[in-house]
Design goal:
The chain is mainly α and 137 residues long. The chain contains 5 helices and no strands. Helix 1 runs antiparallel to helix 2, helix 2 crosses helix 3 and helix 2 packs across helix 4.
Length: 137
C-alpha cells in the first residue's frame, strides 16, 4: 500500500476490524456532531453507504456488516422487545433496513431517494413493527 504525505497507508484496509472501528467512529462522529436527538438515519446511513456497496463482492465486508447490523444496531434492541425468535426477527429487520439503505442511498431509486423521512417511516414502520413483535409464521 502506498502512503500519503502524512505517512498513513492508502487503499483498502487489511482487516474487517479496522473497517468496523472506522464505521463505529463515523457513527460516533454523527452523534457527537449533532447529538443523539439531532442524529438522523440519513446521517448514519451515509458512513455506511460505502460498506453497503462493497458487501456483494467482498466476504470480509459482508462479515463486518453482519456483525455491525446484528450486534450493534439490532441485536440488543431486538432481544429486548421480541416476544420470541430474536435472531430471526433481527434478520428480518435487517433485510428491511439494509434494503432501504441500498435503494435510498446507494441506488438512489426515486421516488424513495428523495422522499421525506416521515413518508418513508410511515411506509416502512408497520413492516418493521410486525417483524419485531407481530406474528412471523
Amino acid at each position: 500500500m502506498a502512503a500519503d504525505r502524512a505517512g498513513r497507508p492508502r487503499g483498502r484496509r487489511p482487516s474487517g476490524e479496522d473497517t468496523r472501528a472506522a464505521l463505529l467512529a463515523a457513527a460516533r462522529a454523527v452523534f457527537t456532531e449533532r447529538g443523539f436527538d439531532g442524529a438522523t438515519v440519513r446521517g448514519i446511513a451515509e458512513p455506511l453507504a460505502a460498506l453497503i456497496r462493497s458487501v456483494a463482492g467482498h466476504e470480509a465486508a459482508a462479515r463486518m456488516m453482519r456483525e455491525f447490523v446484528g450486534r450493534v444496531i439490532l441485536g440488543r434492541f431486538v432481544r429486548a422487545v421480541a416476544p420470541d425468535r430474536p435472531e430471526e426477527r433481527a434478520a428480518l429487520c435487517a433485510s428491511q433496513i439494509i434494503g432501504l439503505g441500498m435503494v435510498r442511498y446507494v441506488l438512489k431509486l426515486e421516488p424513495l431517494a428523495s422522499a421525506e423521512p416521515a413518508v418513508v417511516v410511515a411506509a416502512i414502520a408497520p413492516t418493521v413493527q410486525r417483524y419485531l413483535t407481530g406474528p412471523i409464521d
